[in-house]
Amino acid sequence: MKFELIIDPNASCQQDDPCQFLFTSGSPDVVKSIVPGVVHRFWWIDDVPAGPLVISAATAEADAAWLDTQAERFLQGIEFLNPPLIEGLPPEMPSVYSGPLLAKGTYGLPYETIAGGQAINLSGDLLAEDGTVADVRLRVLDLRVEGGSIECNDQQYDGPFTTDTDQAEGANSISIDDWGTATVRILQTSSAFSSAVGPPICDELNGTWTGTGGLLEGRTGTFRRISVDSTETVILS
């Protein structure tokens, strides 16, 4: 088996201290140096090692160019170690964004016609108090059932229809002007409905976000989205 491995030339390793990788398979362990931006070629005559190959660098950016079919199996045994993420938003970045979001069902149907059991696509621009625009793209599940009791926007709702689930659906993202982009992971959905058809009277999503671009890259935090009577608020912290 053969493959090429290239560590991103922008890897923020310390000066004159090359990134290193460690083979945790075999005995004894072998430590070699990897220099960012340089192509390194490796060969295995035997089968794929049983344990993982750990790449340690000050960045998660890495590109592996695989040269044969056996390498795909080996790819599953590689773990890229990320640097610790910074908790919270950058200083002075707005944390609250409000406004309307367009809601469509899985097949583009208006939410007013949906009776539950579908994924709902939410999209639109929300504004912070200082005018910063957040482009919000969310995909949530409407799994309403008759009855139930949930808490939404710090209030208790007892039916007549509710959704209370930790299931998520699809990719979710927020792009904020001048600040960057974050991927959102929805961990909890709590919704209250007045009937079996139509949008919720209160809908709350809770989860986490991880920065993937701009000044948000390398950061993480909590995500909360509240919709009451079609008024949307997204809170990042």
Explain the overall architecture.
- This protein has one helix at 70-75, and strands at 2-7, 19-23, 30-34, 39-43, 53-56, 62-66, 78-81, 86-87, 96-99, 102-104, 118-127, 133-142, 145-146, 149-152, 155-158, 161-165, 173-176, 180-193, 202-214, 219-228, 231-236.
- The chain is mainly β and 237 residues long.
- The protein folds into two domains: 2-83, no CATH class; 96-236.
- The strands form four sheets. Strands 8, 9, 10, 11, 12, 13, 16, 17, 18, 19, 20 and 21 form a twelve-stranded mixed β-sheet that branches.
- The longest helix is centred in the N-terminal third of the chain and has 6 residues, at 70-75.
- It is elongated and about 55 Å long.
The biggest beta sheet is recorded as: 12 strands, mixed
Number of strands: 21
Number of domains: 2
* Elements, N to C (H/E): EEEEEEHEEEEEEEEEEEEEEE
Weakly predicted, low-confidence segments: 21-32, 43-73
Number of helices: 1
Instruction: Report how far apart the termini are.
Output: 46 Å
Beta-strand fraction estimate: over 45%
Query: What quaternary form is this?
Result: single chain
On the 0 to 100 scale, the average pLDDT is 75
What Rg is obtained from the alpha carbons, in whole angstroms? 23 Å
Which term fits the overall shape? Answer: elongated
Coarse structural class: mainly beta
Q: How much helix is in the residues?
A: under 10%
